[in-house]
Specification:
3 helices; 88% helix; Atp1_alphaprobac; ATP synthase protein I
Amino acid sequence: MTEDDQKQRLTQLEARIAAAKKAGSKTEKRADASHAQGELAWRMVIEMVSGLGIGFGIGYGLDSLFGTIPIFLVLFTLLGLAAGVNVMLRSAREIQAKTEAEAAKAKAERDERD
């Protein structure tokens, strides 16, 4: 091989690398994006059920310990429900903030290109 052939091959390789980087930088919508939404929904359901379960367990345990009517069971089940809703809403706010940040970043990138 001559030196000119090597330079030509190197130039072609650099052009192919640049084209691959350019093609790789384009963001495509993921095929499993719907799965990600499903995972978030399950996370919220689990948070709600775990709050209810923990409240129920504490209330039942206290009623058994003190031998009372199911006053603690009802009280702590309602507190568990409130805690589950609170955690679920916090998760929803976190997800919304993340989504808004990604949208703002994408908009800034589009504005920068234009």
